[in-house]
Amino acid sequence: MSETIRLDRWISDMTGLSRKQAGRMIRGKKVTVNGEVVRDASFMADPSACVVALDGQNLPYENFQYYVVNKPAGVLSATEDKRRTTVVDLLPPGHRRDLFPAGRLDLDTTGLILMTNDGQLSHRLLSPAWHVDKRYIATVDGILEKTAVRAFAEGITAGTDLEFAPAVLEILETDADSGTSEASVTIHEGKFHQVKKMFEAVGCPVRTLTRVTFGPLTLEGLPEGEARKLTEEEIQALRDCTQTRGKDQPDEDEM
């Protein structure tokens, strides 16, 4: 038998309602357990044996949830803010209230963010010890040369005491008229402002930056500003990519 869960917590976790709001729904005869109306918010339900429904809609209990978000510029990688839109605000109705972004993107950086409440998986995905790749597309000022590709491959040193592990830089396009370049860069670290500082170190400051992959996850088919739940196959792929541990390194905040 799995761990039993209070009915008001079940409703709250699976709908995003507060526990107080969930209690009102329960007392209002809107919740059934195995087809029978239950009005006791403290009723203990077993996820392995109980079918809980709200207004006739089944609510299977999920200990962990996983969403991919395509973050626009100007949206905070945070769980709440009184003034600005956060990535949580982009999630569809019914998500758990305890979801958080697995790593951060700058306010002006766009692209893929994983939202979950699975702390262990999040830690592994972000830790350099597991070498989970993250790929970005950048537009930068300046014409990138092969010397920059070699510098990224050898590992960038920014300033006197900041070092970045080797990364894969691919020059996608250069435009002599505008003096800009477009490039793909793949890293497995996530130090503060890492990609921007690496490009600055080779004399090409970033204009725009988008994260397009995170481990096995991509933005394919997901419009900017929207979010979707991960499939079971994608969740398993995330777990699989954190099974092989690389060289231990200290954890850092995501860029």
Descriptive report:
The chain is of the alpha+beta class and 255 residues long. It is 20% helix and 28% strand. The strands form four sheets. Strands 7, 8, 9, 10, 13, 14, 15, 16 and 17 form a nine-stranded mixed sheet that branches. The protein has a four-stranded antiparallel sheet with strand order 3-2-5-6. It has a two-stranded antiparallel ribbon with strand order 1-4. Helix 1 (7-15) crosses helix 2. The radius of gyration is 22 Å and the shape is elongated. Residues 247-255 have low confidence and may be disordered.
What is the strand and helix layout of this fold?
Layout: E1 5-6, H1 7-15, H2 19-27, E2 31-33, E3 36-37, E4 44-45, E5 52-54, E6 57-58, E7 66-71, E8 100-101, E9 110-116, H3 119-126, E10 134-141, H4 146-154, E11 157-158, E12 162-163, E13 168-175, E14 180-187, H5 194-201, E15 206-214, E16 217-218, E17 227-229, H6 232-240
Parallel strand pairs: 9-15
Antiparallel strand pairs: 1-4, 2-3, 2-5, 5-6, 7-9, 7-17, 8-9, 10-14, 10-15, 11-12, 13-14, 15-16
Helix pairs in contact: 1-2
